[in-house]
Amino acid sequence: MGRQAMMDSNGWKFIVTLVTAACGGMIFNLLNTPIPWLLGPMIAVLIGTNIWKGKYRWPGQIRNSGMIIVGYTIGLSMTGTALREMGEQLPTMCLMTVILLLLCGGIAFAVSKLSDTDFKTALLGSIPGGLSQVLALAEETKGVNLTVVTVTQVVRLMIIVIGIPLLVFSPVFGQVHDVATAAVTLTTRHDDWAGLFPNILIFAPVCALCAVGGNRINFPTAFLLGPAIATAILQGIGLHGPSLPSGLISAAQLMIGTYVGLLLKPDKLQRKARTFTFAILSGLVLMLCAWGLCELLTLLHPVSRSTALLSLAPGGMDQMGILAHEINADLSMVSGYQLFRTFFIFFAVPPLLRLIFRISLKGSRSEQPQ
């Protein structure tokens, strides 16, 4: 096949992939599922690649662009209020995050012993980070079954996103669902493209340069954390970071979800029923652990149980922030705790994982007969 013919073929594969992903996003959006433009393209492309093998292509550069956009939105959350909240409660944040990660490690150990999933994959499947962030970390970790990690993380996210609101609005927590407030919350996702300028002309190139530069020096999940740190610094020196239109955020989710959908290999997922069963059980246990930590946090600080639960819920920062806004919880505390856990996971967890895996590898070698 000539070079031109190959380029034409790749172009058609890209168009087929884009159309499939967009259809998946629209369907999930109509069904009002959580993060529809991430899960919809992921599942649509996954189905498509199993029906029409070899017809799909999605360049990694597009996924990286989506990660830069998500990183920028994370950086926007690092306001002065959120940073002050993090500073005042830093010891408690460290304690709660470490306890939660230890509980996740215990869940992963139990899953690895009760199933045929290796501990490395089970641990990454249990880490309570944002979906796109954890998948980026899993992709960079050798010897991990990305399909199992994705299934476990998606099931956990669905349980948290559905279960936490039910818990918050249950008689146990006593919150009331205000439809009018919810409508106001949803309308905060605007489509004012003109409002991006002129500051976006500063933020965009700086975020892109930090992402590329961080990737060259092997910074962990550079295309996500590079822009997040750059945005926080620019805001810290007095520049205002404009909020992104909802359409651009949806496009970023599509860029990432499509890429992940192509990475998934269902044929490599052994014992599917068992994998889904353990994913559901581990998600439920993790939510109960978050509830227990929420009760502990209310004893340490004078905060409402709803604020404590949303601060410690192992779900996405954006979903917990929207829910916190709706019930008038302490939004700065919720975003502060969620943001601290996100950065702790990506700065502290990778070296800890490497240490754990190195120790486990030495242990397995020492057990082998000489």
TrEMBL record:
Q: What does the UniProt keyword field contain?
A: Membrane, Transmembrane, Transmembrane helix
Q: Where is the chain membrane-spanning?
A: 12-31, 37-54, 66-84, 90-111, 154-173, 193-212, 219-238, 244-264, 276-300, 339-357
Q: Does the keyword Transmembrane helix apply?
A: yes
Source domain of life: Bacteria
| Gene Ontology biological process terms, A to Z | regulation of gene expression
Q: Which GO terms describe its cellular component?
A: membrane
Kindly give the PANTHER family that the UniProt entry links to this protein. REGULATOR ABRB-RELATED
Please identify the protein, giving its name as recorded: AbrB family transcriptional regulator
Organism this protein belongs to: Paenibacillus catalpae
